Write the structure tokens for this entry.
Amino acid sequence: METKLSLYNTLTRRKEAFEPLVEGRVGMYVCGPTVYGDPHLGHARPAVTFDLLFRYLKSLDFKVRYVRNITDVGHLEHDADEGEDKIAKKARLEQLEPMEVAHYYTERYRQAMESMNVLTPSIEPHASGHIIEQIEFVKRILDEGFAYISNGSVYFDVEKYNAKHHYGRLSGRNLDDIVLNTRELDGQSDKHHSYDFALWKKASAEHIMRWPSPWSNGFPGWHMECSAMSTKYLGEQFDIHGGGMDLMFPHHECEIAQSTAALGHDSARYWVHNNMITINGQKMGKSLGNFITLEQLFNGSHEILEQAYTPMTIRFFVLQAHYRSTLDFSNEALQAAEKGLDRLMKGIDALDKIKPAATSTANPADLEKRCAEAMADDLNSPMVISAMFDWVRTINSAVEGKESFTAEDLATLKAIFHRYAFEVLGLKSEKQAAGGRDRVTPLVEMLLEERLKARAAKDWAASDRIRDGLAAAGIRVKDRKDGTDWELE
Ligand code: ZN
């Protein structure tokens, strides 16, 4: 079935038919986490949104190179050009090397993503591993005349850039608004104007993360890594740049300015932004007491949580809203997502219970069409889910004998559910997600039954063989008065 993807491009503020630069291939860059703290609810939404896009593009047979960076240097407190590096601060407080902090939280992030069935990107470059590329990029901007050196730091000259290109076009601002909304410099700064931003910062004496450069021992500005690494891995022009809406200004605006200044043209063609998650209608923030880490969600340990929620429930919850809509988190909404996911998975399982009939009362092509059209329409995952729910009702009727399907239609229906629920939406049944115990239960129960029979026949050798075999597989058998129990080691 021919479906043409249309994506909402933040740069042009309209839905556009997606045409990749090179036929059959897609280059996609997404701003990843700054690794100085545990992954939290706010990380779940961009991760799941761009995983959905990645999975969907692959399902359309595109060869996708998906680059998602790890920010491990240069992200200063409050995202401004001033303040301590977030990772260095954590390292100072915990008496660790900054790279220990970055490594630990990178691993925590990866584990959380894996549990939500978020696929690993094609490349996951670290900012600290691309200092040379960033220095070279700063040099190009200086050579083009859009930056100036001041006391060992290099700043982007926003006014000069704006005279030739439009600074603020992604976020829909112009320089006059930006001037009005930024406070005046206090005379202490090396910048010419408050809206100029750092491309390279000279390190102060206490700043531990530093590298040599032609201008000073210092470190790159936060926005620089994405311009340098996207160019390195995807080329001077690439298809899609994604990230959360909160990154649109200043981060993505500055990225566009840097890349345009250095390369003379736009680099990313489609800018895709996911909307934010609110909690009971409020913005998430440490000061509001509603800052929830993913681990707390998965084990239910935060005080505002009524229960634990599985990683799949969180994924399903995110997918139930369109990525450009706000998504409000509440216990009620998550419990509804939990029920909904369970209903969907049971519906898919129920397909196996339907006995094939001579004729079909409904056409699976309807489900295929609805899912394909919804996904092609700017990744409308809620519409895909609603089409699947309609069909779950049909399946349940068929189990009760009120609808019927031929063997061929049943196979088609299974394939469609498999494609959209598992491949594209990336859902897993909780049984699959739990891995471990649930997956081996039927096998263990069967062996324990055999062992019981052996014991009844006083065949102690066979009984021990089964027990030892299970032990070798990490399954400990415990004989009790009232029967046999087992556990995974
Ligand atoms: Zn970025």
